[in-house]
Write a structure and sequence with these properties.
Blueprint lengths: L2 H23 L2 H8 L3 H28 L6 H16 L7 H11 L4 H29 L8 H26 L1 H17 L5 H26 L3 H28 L6 H15 L10 H13 L2 H31 L1 H7 L2 H8 L8
Helix pairs in contact: 1-12, 1-13, 3-4, 3-6, 3-10, 4-5, 4-13, 5-6, 6-7, 6-9, 6-10, 6-11, 7-8, 8-9, 10-11, 11-12, 12-13, 14-15
Length: 356
């Protein structure tokens, strides 16, 4: 999918679903709720968004230091916004990594380290997001609003997190097992005709090199760079707390009571689900899903407005700033290349020489 097509679909779906939500949910009581909103709650929501960005930047900076590199906080925050933009224009929010890797490489950080930094950053986010569900369940066991399907999804998320942790540990302690699994997947793709015979060996060799590079850097995270890595983990926890606090803060701002940990569980499930939505940036489903989560804690007449407002604060602002960074640092001419296989090779080896 091209950048232009992805951005167009994102904007069209977001605008269409947001318009439908406003049309079918807003009435006189909506205006009453909004007019009586607590200004302190609104300001606090805005501050939480800024804090979330800053902590994400600190996390990137600490991971870079753990890998033996240095990132300025200015560059780190630009990488954060780039991730928002890349996620918005690609299915299942998968496009932030290539943009970040390109900019890291452009700032003299090797491709292997760039992959490790961006991959570990994503893994930390997913693991902490998944862990927030069982932790909240331990604190608040009474969940009357969750039906059997939702509880089943909670079990699925917990199993997913356990599997992710297992893969993480294996990639550190037994990289040969990961190589074997990847090799089986590649050979299976060849048997189904998805990959050509001449490319299989080259892909396997290239993948094995990247697994070795990732394993070496991951070991550096936990040995020579352990202190900075742990600081990055702490920043990731604090960032997720700030992120998951925005929705309860918005509900409190309009004068409604909210059970914080119940809201955390609902958000975590919703955010996990967005990773499997095939539309660019989860557009459409994100706006409708946010309104649905808000409807658990607020009247229908205001849930749609809150869902759109939440998306505006947590995503749209970051996407807009990411677009500005794209124009400033990358340029539209390279954007499509970065998102394609050829672009990824140019990110890895823009000069034509063997990467270091």
């Amino acid at each position: 999918m091209s950048v232009k097509k992805g951005l167009s679909i994102f904007l069209l779906l977001s605008a269409a679903v947001s318009s439908a939500l406003l049309y079918f949910t807003v009435d006189k009581s909506s205006l009453k709720f909004l007019a009586g909103a607590n200004k302190l709650g609104v300001v606090l929501s805005l501050l939480l968004v800024v804090l979330m960005w800053l902590l994400d930047a600190v996390k990137l900076s600490m991971l870079a230091k753990a890998a033996g590199e240095r990132l300025s906080y200015g560059l780190s925050i630009e990488l954060v916004w780039l991730n928002y933009f890349g996620a918005a224009i690609t299915p299942m929010q998968s496009g932030g990594g290539p943009f970040q890797m390109y900019l890291l490489y452009k700032n003299n950080i090797s491709f292997g380290k760039s992959v490790a930094i961006t991959l570990v950053r994503t893994i930390l986010t997913l693991l902490i997001l998944g862990l927030s569900i069982p932790l909240s369940l331990l604190i608040q066991q009474d969940l009357p609003d969750l039906d059997w399907m939702m509880r089943g999804f909670i079990v699925y998320v917990i199993l997913f997190v356990m599997a992710a942790w297992l893969c993480f540990v294996l990639s550190l302690l037994r990289p040969r097992i990961i190589k074997r699994w990847v090799g089986i997947i590649i050979i299976t793709l060849k048997r189904f005709g998805i990959l050509k015979q001449g490319r299989v060996r080259r892909i396997i060799r290239s993948t094995n090199r990247e697994i070795d590079s990732y394993n070496q850097i991951l070991r550096a995270f936990l040995t020579t760079g352990r202190r900075h890595f742990l600081c990055g983990v702490a920043a990731a926890f604090l960032q997720m707390i700030a992120y998951l606090s925005i929705m309860p803060c918005m509900i409190w701002a309009i004068g409604l009571p909210v059970e914080f940990f119940h809201c955390v569980i609902m958000q975590s499930l919703f955010l996990f689900l967005l990773y499997f939505i095939p539309t660019p940036g989860g557009s459409g489903a994100a706006e409708g899903g946010a309104a649905l989560v808000f409807s658990v804690f607020a009247p229908r007449s205001v849930a749609g407005v809150l869902g759109i407002g939440w998306r505006l604060l947590t995503e749209y602002t970051g996407i807009l700033l990411g677009g500005i960074v794209i124009v400033k640092l990358v340029g539209w001419g390279l954007v499509n290349q970065i998102m394609t296989e050829d672009g990824e090779r140019k990110v890895k080896n823009p000069s034509g020489d063997d990467p270091v």
